[in-house]
From TrEMBL, chain A:
Origin species: Sediminibacillus albus
Gene Ontology molecular-function annotations: 4 iron, 4 sulfur cluster binding; L-serine ammonia-lyase activity; metal ion binding
Domain of life: Bacteria
Domain Serine dehydratase-like alpha subunit per the UniProt entry, residue ranges: 15-274
Pathway(s) annotated for this protein in UniProt: Carbohydrate biosynthesis; gluconeogenesis
Lineage: Bacteria, Bacillati, Bacillota, Bacilli, Bacillales
Keywords of this entry: 4Fe-4S, Gluconeogenesis, Iron, Iron-sulfur, Lyase, Metal-binding
Cofactor(s) recorded in Swiss-Prot or TrEMBL: [4Fe-4S] cluster
A family per Pfam: SDH_alpha
Family: Belongs to the iron-sulfur dependent L-serine dehydratase family.
Protein name: L-serine dehydratase
GO biological process: gluconeogenesis
Catalytic activity: L-serine = pyruvate + NH4(+)
Key word Hydrolase present: no
From TrEMBL, chain B:
UniProt-listed CDD domains: ACT_LSD
GO BP terms in the entry: gluconeogenesis
InterPro entries xref list: ACT-like_dom_sf, ACT_dom, ASB_dom_sf, Fe-S_L-Ser, Fe-S_L-Ser_bsu, Ser_deHydtase_bsu
Ranges of residues in domain ACT: 148-220
Name of the featured protein: L-serine deaminase
Alphabetized UniProt keyword annotations: 4Fe-4S, Gluconeogenesis, Iron, Iron-sulfur, Lyase, Metal-binding
Organism encoding this protein: Sediminibacillus albus
GO molecular function: 4 iron, 4 sulfur cluster binding; L-serine ammonia-lyase activity; metal ion binding
Family stated for the protein in its record: Belongs to the iron-sulfur dependent L-serine dehydratase family.
Amino acid sequence: MFRNVAELVEIAENENIKISEVMIRQEMDVKEKTREEVISQMEKNLSVMEKAVEEGLQGVKSHSGLTGGDAVLLQKYLEEKQPLSGELLLDAVSKAVATNEVNAAMGTICATPTAGSAGCVPGTLFAVKNRLNPTREEMIRFLFTSGAFGFVVANNASISGAAGGCQAEVGSAAAMAAAAIVEMAGGTPQQSSEAFAITLKNMLGLVCDPVAGLVEVPCVKRNAAGASNAIVSADMALAGITSRIPCDEVIGAMYRIGRAMPSAHKETAEGGLAATPTGRALEAKIYGIPMKKE
Amino acid sequence: MKYKSVFDIIGPVMVGPSSSHTAGAARIGRAARNLFGKEPAWAEIHLYGSFAKTYRGHGTDVAIIGGLLDYDTDDQRIGKSIEIAEKKGMKISFHEDEAATDHPNTARVRIGDGVEDLELVGISIGGGKAEITELNGFELRLSGNHPAVLVMHNDRHGAIASVTQILAKHEINIGRMEVSRKDVGKEALMVIEVDQNVGDYILKELENASHILQVAKIVD
């Protein structure tokens, strides 16, 4: 069983297999399941992600009214205009936003690795799909590669906003997506690890400060940032750029930063954007309570 | 290692909005329901830390009650679970507790039905994964690496032997075992970590052994 990214990459290199294959074999081993069982369970998750994106692109609205409809605006903009940031990137952003809008509306999603960060992995997968034309199996492998890296973070640091801030959620999700994009684009296991490290480095220190304690503001837009960060970092790694700080040390840094973060910035709705005048006013309106003062 | 499966990371499939505050909370509720073995008539939920601060926005309340109704994380009825439970006559109360806890997402679930009651402390550690840290006042130190059988029993001679004999008969190997009791001759708890999965028919057999009150298993 791999305990860190270095071991994960080493197994893949030594056995000359992909990261996704390392994860599939470990899952079969740990859960005493056949390859078919493991693959078909992941395919179910993939279908849930596809449905969520579809639903979000139709347009949804959360109960609070804070989020919803932005994925539709982005798709419309993509159809009518030439986006400055590039079609693939903005398509990924719109699909990440779609997923998180469905999540905020209490629709059905697949946590990757969490619900609040569920947009990054499917958003990038379905956008990159249009460029790389992967087989169904390659799309399923994308999720195993993401999962392999997320597995290391969950065990060696945290994937919980309450324990480690948003860097642990959207930061991890974006980095997982970057690693999987690299594999799908034909990069090496080491390049996946570089993409992961570069992405997470750029998300270090991100706090979890949800307005009114809802997984809406700023969570939905942070998934947009996570998806774009993932694609850019994957391109950097595929270009041959490496991270000066090794992947496992970046994960360690993320863990320590999370520990040092005040609880006001770890999913308590007591600090950051949640404590802005507008954040407090929205909270008061949603719950019908007097406005909290600092 | 706390997380063992890739499906702890890519998953669960769930109703939004939060894996820790909704899906993990539902799993804590469902663990209580499974250990209790039936639908409770009343539920008293204490929330701590981030759970206490943000439970309304995250639907932690409906998720825990959904779990008590035996709903899985992707059950669309979770959103209306409190309504449904109250219609069934369940008395529900929520308490925001200021006490400091080791984990920011901690819930204490007390449930009962006039005949029996149960108290459990669960933590939601992220990505929808939950751990039970306390049962009926007994601290649980589960490694989480193996399936575990929890046996509430009366502190009488032979109670432990009868349990281990049944496990031996079914070729279940015990990796770690811990027995604690509240007082001599009073309620006691066996925590047994095993190498093999324990089938429901074995649990039934354990339940029927003498001095055994409640049996439940925790699978990873």
